[in-house]
Amino acid sequence: MFVLSMWNLIFMLFFTFSFMLFFSSLIMLNLSFSFYFSWNIFSWGATDINMIFLLDWISLMFLSFVLFISGSVFYYSGEYMEGEINLSRFIFLLAGFVGSMGLLIFSPNLISILLGWDGLGLVSYCLVIYYQNYKSLNAGTLTVLSNRVGDVLILLGIVWMINYGDWSFVAWMGNDQSLILTSALIVLASLTKSAQIPFSAWLPAAMAAPTPVSSLVHSSTLVTAGIYLVIRLGWVYDFWMNELLMVLSVLTMFMAGLGACFEFDLKKIIALSTLSQLGLMMYSLSLGLVKVALFHLLMHALFKALLFMSAGCIIHGFKGWQDIRMMGNMMTSLPFISSCFVVSNLALSGMPFLAGFYSKDLILELSLMQELNMLSLFMLFLSTGLTVAYTFRLIYYMVRRDYVLSGSSNLSDGWGIMMKSCLGLVTFSVFFGALISWIAMDVNSIVLPTSLKNLTLSVCILGVLIGFLMSQSSYNFSKMKFSIIIWLSGSMWFLPYLSSQPLTYLPLKTGSEIMKLGDMGWLELMGGQGISSYILKMSYKIQIMSENSIKIFILLAWIIMSVIMFF
After folding, report:
1. Top-ranked range on mean pLDDT: pick from 182-196, 315-329, 497-511
2. Residue 526, in any domain of the structure
3. Domains in the chain: how many in total?
4. 337 class by beta-carbon count within 10 Å (0-12 exposed, 13-18 middle, 19+ buried)
5. How many helices and strands (H and E) does the chain possess?
6. Which residues in 190-232 belong to E strands, given as ranges?
7. Which domain holds residue 522?
8. How large is the angle between the packed helices 290-317 and 417-440, nearest 10 degrees?
């Protein structure tokens, strides 16, 4: 019971600070002011090394959401991680995760941003390999190396910013053309953290972590760090990277939606849905809709945390089983958890008057008012339809379908700790979309013709039909003639294969050949070890000759006499 009381204490602490920060952010938004704290640590030539914190309504509101979700995850872990040996390690790692995210949120300085950025990468690696098996190790290595690319890009940005004598992006808010290189490096670094193409393979692989970790990572911390960093740098949208962001984000949305339609692992389907929503946020950023992207980021954090936690309850009830083909009829065995699961899925698909509707529908309608080409709009709405399709396919498999395993009738909701932790997120997922839309969003009137106004609704209805059709015929996919297309669609366009073995095969093979020819070949014979072996052999022979043997003395005398007679 000590462990549960500790989880309760952490939850109450996070919950209290979350509400304090949320109301503080509303006051700052209403009065239009912020706090800027700067401490000079030391000076290096003409450059001042400062520790800077920027407290405005954006950072306070985002941190309040992070703390609320983190508190719910801590409380949820009290039952989910019950019986774990290394529980204290798990607690400290989660606390380090939240602390690194807080440092990243409040820092307008590239060096302190890098501290939080690196802290997220390191702690995420420790959490992904928490179960300590080969699968977790491979997933953790892919995760940390993919994120390391972004770390290197931020380091290059820090090096370039030495020219300006300041690493704070508040100091270079102006539209200086010489800062295009720094802003481009930061935007490219955000692509690695937000898992856009071609860095998408690590996000489903990170599902090897425990489910509470996945809930925290995919909702408000690791994957949102890249999006948040680009949101803070709102001035970078005036140059050529808009088109690059648009292309990559649309391709990411389409690839993730297509892959989720052919996936049967419950956690991987939710991970691919996260990837799809990250693509939507990056798409809105490419259009310059910074505030709308932040709105969708906050709403996505709520229903995605709820989706992972309710899925974790189902996995916990099935003793770790994650294949949705072996599940079904959750509304009878797990009524409350299945209700949470359905609500979070409906919010993800943009069901009217839930949290996801107010932000997602706003992005789609505002994109229709932009001057965009037809292909990008087609891909955007196609990806939206795929989101609805795999969402309703998942709902059918989990809730509507009959039992597959006979022993699944013994499922229960557990002690009730996991159910209570989902209760607050369900409430927020239902009501907070409208609340934040009324309070923080000041979007001008959206004027569209009736055909375009009904386009989103038509795409969603078509996605529902496709989802139910796919759920009825999923078993026949392997029998289709163009199975290579199914394989391509279900494997994220071969990105996991391209991100692992092909990148390491040639360097490892070359290194092995160099080692055999060099270190174990001529270098072995002609180097220090070969000379040492030769000297040892010669000394051994001389030692034999120096022994008191009559044969050796007769041989030496004969050699000496022969030499004397020759000369």
Report:
1. 182-196
2. yes
3. 1
4. buried
5. 25, 2
6. none
7. 502-566
8. 170
